[in-house]
Amino acid sequence: MATAIPRDRVFFAFGPDLKPIAEVEQGEEVVLHTHDCFEGQIQRTTDLVDELDWGHVNPATGPIYIKGVRPGDVLRVDLLELQVGEQASMVTIPGEGALGDVITEMETAILRLEGDQIVFKDKVRVPKRPMIGVIGVAPASGEVPNGTPGPHGGNMDCTLVTAGNSVYFTVGVDGALFGAGDLHAAMGDGEIVVCGAETSGSVRFKAEVVPLPGLPTPFIETKDLVSTIFSAPTVDEAANGAIHRMAQFLTDFARIPLNDAGMLMSLVGQLKFCQVVDPLKTVRFEFPKAVLEDYGFKLR
Amino acid sequence: MATAIPRDRVFFAFGPDLKPIAEVEQGEEVVLHTHDCFEGQIQRTTDLVDELDWGHVNPATGPIYIKGVRPGDVLRVDLLELQVGEQASMVTIPGEGALGDVITEMETAILRLEGDQIVFKDKVRVPKRPMIGVIGVAPASGEVPNGTPGPHGGNMDCTLVTAGNSVYFTVGVDGALFGAGDLHAAMGDGEIVVCGAETSGSVRFKAEVVPLPGLPTPFIETKDLVSTIFSAPTVDEAANGAIHRMAQFLTDFARIPLNDAGMLMSLVGQLKFCQVVDPLKTVRFEFPKAVLEDYGFKLR
Question: Which of A263, B1, B63, B296 has the largest CB neighbor count within 10 A?
């Protein structure tokens, strides 16, 4: 029976001085119930963003103190299951996002989540692809609002952060102070108008320290690939960071010679956008696990 | 029987003053035999890039004059078949590409192309995914070296430019002066060390004018999606261009209301890297055809 954390236990900025709302063991299954990114303020099409209390956006449920975890440890968070609510919202905000210069009308759309589908305006049906927008651990110093991504995680809006995958973080403080929220029933890479299908939901996970000191985190592992992830003021800088971190991982961890690593990154690695609309932009670099194994390396 | 063009009929810059080497009808099948991006100068691991004649890189076979095609026309090029050679090369070049700051040793690798696989250093086998690096039409004015992408096409290094897909260009001069070359047996999005699996090969295509005036070109159509593509000095600018062109296409052509278009781009559109290593960077924005049809629009 997993430890359950209710969705009203939230915080709005990752920081070392947060007070944990629960303590769990490493490897213990935990279910975080989560609000949507608006903390439930948007329920119908007449709820427009100009009426929002912006002090209550991007809540993350937590923080969770994970016992025996120390600063500098690499923490692997296994995402076991995501559930999303029965409806989701999307909004347009003039002046915001990648089309903010052309969008002039505020609008709220309510999307029905039916079975494995999302219904947009009774016109479009697309597959659900649930993912977590905000996930991370407290940095060693400073406060990072949940709307911003960074080395600690945060609002990475990365479509790989989903059930079945693992996210690795470098711990900043005792207990890690982990939290997550801002689920999307689906989101496209880029997150053009600063939202996916924003929904409440739940995240079942377990977390434990792994012996991978120096891993370039945040780092993601799926069934078939590994991915670095990097956030920076521009996409160019974010791409550069994600690329160099993957090269570092391939040479330092998988012990692939640098030239081989570069050529294989060029041949079968994939540079991908996470989002281009948050205060920092986020880019990932994906590389196939099968090639790591060709060089005799396994992550676990 | 398709008209065949031998691989020694090449040019190195797209421009309005090129002399066509063949004239073909619209809808006529043509096979361009193509050199690799080094015009065959690299055949073995001892052929290093410091011995290259850089005046002979990125050859495109052509240009082909397509009859009845006029400036301003939108030309659809259907890519019917790609064939690649029996081997490919990859190189590292200190100072060049996204890892040029850390790569210190020049190296050439020769990859075997066996059946549907690529063999790298007898250690790694990955699937062939043939694609065209350089493809385009002459601009109305100015010369663009084949190594540079732009509104006319050129070195877009886009993995969607492959057999079964169509690429749309806006014609700059009478006859279009179409050409293509620089095939890759495979390449990852990003093209980190400035090469894919560089190979000779052939491209079977047909081209015809379509009644889509104002289409934001270059534009790509696959079985399942449409994609804008944009090149600019920075990735941020390239992304902005690809995003705005897709919004323009969705509103002006598919007649999707702007807010719907923005939300759907955020929900199921995919912003993707083509390459980050050429003189201009190239980004595409993919959008599912199924959603266009939900709004009653078909491209053909």
Answer: A263
What pLDDT does A108 receive? 98
Taking all residues of chain B, what is their mean pLDDT, rounded to a whole number? 97
Interface test with B, best of A189, A235, A250 (most B CBs within 10 A): A235
pLDDT (average), residues B257-261? 98
Per-residue pLDDT of B178-188, as tens digits, reads 999 999 999 99
CB A234 within 8 A of CB B238: no
Q: How far apart are CA B198 and CA B42, in angstroms?
A: 10
Contact B189, B272 (CB under 8 A): yes
Partners of residue A244 in chain B, C-beta under 8 Å: 99, 102
Q: Which amino acid is at B166?
A: S
Chain B residues 110-139 within an 8 A CB cutoff of chain A: 118, 120-121, 123-126
d(CA A74, CA A69): 9
Would you state the pLDDT for residue A117?
Answer: 98
Residue A1: its pLDDT value, please? 72
- Strands A270-275 and A281-288, bridge-based pairing: antiparallel
Q: Enter the tokens of residue B151.
A: 């509104």
- Give CA–CA dist A88/A172, Å, rounded: 33
Low-confidence ranges of chain A (pLDDT < 50): none
Q: Strand A30-34 vs strand A3-5: parallel, antiparallel, or unpaired?
A: parallel
Largest CA distance in chain B: 58
Q: Is the peptide bond preceding residue A218 cis, with omega within 30 degrees of 0?
A: yes
pLDDT in tens, B56-93: 999 999 999 999 999 999 999 999 999 999 999 999 99
**Contact at CB, A263 and B191, closer than 8 angstroms:** no
With 80 as the cut, is the pLDDT of residue B1 above it? Answer: no
Measured at the alpha carbon of residue A263, what is the angle toward residues A258 and A265, in degrees to the nearest 5? 90
Q: How far apart are CA A98 and CA A277, in angstroms?
A: 6
pLDDT for res B79: 98
Facing B124 at nearest CB: one of A259, A264, A269: A264
pTM over 0.90: yes
Among A109, A266, A273, select the one facing B273 at the smallest CB separation: A273
Q: Are A188 and B265 an interchain contact pair (Cβ–Cβ within 8 Å)?
A: yes
Cα B32 to its chain centre, rounded Å, is 14
pLDDT the model gives residue B69: 98
Split at pLDDT 50, 70, 90, the class of B190 is very high
Q: Tell me the C-alpha distance between A60 and A41, whole Å.
A: 15
Residue pair A203/A180 in contact (Cβ under 8 Å)? The answer is yes
d(CA A154, CA A133): 8
Q: What percent of chain B has pLDDT over 90?
A: 99
Helix (H, G, I), strand (E, B) or coil at B49: helix
At residue B237, what are phi and psi to the nearest 5 degrees?
Answer: -70, -40
